[in-house]
Amino acid sequence: MQNPLANASVTSRGAIQLGKHVACDAFDENRPLRVVTHAHADHMTGLSQSLKECEKVLATSATKDLIDIMKGPLYLMGGNVETLEYYKTTRYMDETITFFKADHMLGAAQVLVTDAQGTRTAYTGDFRIDETPVIEADTLIIEATYGSPACKRNFPTDIREVLVNTVQKGLRQGTVYVFGYHGKLQEVMEILHLAGIKAPFIASERIFQISKISEKHGMRLGRILLSVEDQAKELQEKNAPCINFCHMNAKGNADLRSFRVTVSGWEFDTPMRETIDNDHIVALSDHSDFNGLLEYARRSKPKQIITDNHRTGHAETLAREIHKHLGIPATALPKR
Ligand SMILES: [Zn+2]
């Protein structure tokens, strides 16, 4: 009998293999096509090597623009990079590759590979179920970040109002510092801008550049001051009402007296909690919770499922729960 997983796997290096030719999100020496589903570090594994050794590297144009900012404009010139937009298809030998939107960060894509017999193998990449179209597939590889029943959010997923109210409360006291990862910070900017918040936004050069790329691809963020500009420095020195967007890595340097907002997915009990030292943790997630992952698996109607056991998450638990609740055979790969 043919191995049912022959055309789909996750390697020990984290490459998501789809069909015969494609490897997503890590280098794979046996696969001529490398896909980057989105510009988060754990999905750009071995990209330098892929640029050197793969025939082609595929990404959406937004992801390509983000990598240009993060790695420098020369980096992607080291390989043969082709952009592919959502719902467009490209062919390689006897297989087709199609990108679908993933609601996760700017440019994020799901990937579907269809072979000559019409067999469909799909990879979700990272996603939030809310605005992510479900791909029907024969074999599905699904992310497993919140793949444990302990990771269920007990509140509505739309917490924009909570975020806006929290920031407004902070602005009444002065400068607000927002901590988050690239992509998520821009999502926060858009939410605040669309809610009519007029306080100036401040960002470091990297965050500023990523914001400009986000606007180029259709997000609406409002005016942003560079943190090195005199006006930005003055606003913060006076503790004037403004919003300073900072990368999560800078959190250790934060002034503990300042009003801080941290956007994090690892919150399941309440949409916002205040810590004793003036931090406000808002549960803005860019991943589905456990129920969202199960919902995707059910609606995709696959014959078999692989959960990504390379990246942070609960792949083994998710595989067990999928089998228990949906009766679909599921395996966590790579084996640990
Ligand atoms: Zn991600």
Description of the structure:
The chain has 336 residues and is of the alpha/beta class. 25% of the residues lie in helices and 24% in strands. The chain contains eight helices and 20 strands. The protein has helices at residues 47-53, 61-71, 160-171, 184-194, 205-216, 230-237, 290-300, 315-326; strands at residues 8-10, 16-18, 22-24, 33-35, 56-59, 81-83, 89-92, 95-101, 109-114, 120-123, 139-142, 176-180, 201-203, 224-226, 243-247, 259-263, 272-274, 279-282, 304-308, 330-333. Strands 7-8-9-10-11-19-20 form a seven-stranded mixed β-sheet, with helices on one face. Strands 14-13-15-12-16-18-17 form a seven-stranded mixed β-sheet. It has a six-stranded mixed β-sheet with strand order 1-2-3-4-5-6. β8 and β9 form a beta hairpin. α2 (61-71) packs antiparallel against α5. The two termini are 26 Å apart. The relative contact order is 0.15. The mean pLDDT is 95. The protein binds zinc ion (ZN). Zinc ion binds at residues 38, 40, 43, 104, 126. Zinc ion is lined by residues 38, 40, 43, 104, 126.
What would you call the shape?
globular
* Spatial strand order of the main sheet: 7-8-9-10-11-19-20
The residue fraction in helices comes out at 25-40%
Ligand catalogue:
zinc ion
Number of strands: 20
Count of individual helical segments: 8
CA-based gyration radius: 21 Å
Largest sheet, in brief, is: 7 strands, mixed
Low-confidence stretches: none
Task: Describe the SSE topology.
Layout: E1 8-10, E2 16-18, E3 22-24, E4 33-35, H1 47-53, E5 56-59, H2 61-71, E6 81-83, E7 89-92, E8 95-101, E9 109-114, E10 120-123, E11 139-142, H3 160-171, E12 176-180, H4 184-194, E13 201-203, H5 205-216, E14 224-226, H6 230-237, E15 243-247, E16 259-263, E17 272-274, E18 279-282, H7 290-300, E19 304-308, H8 315-326, E20 330-333
Zinc ion binds at residues 38, 40, 43, 104, 126.
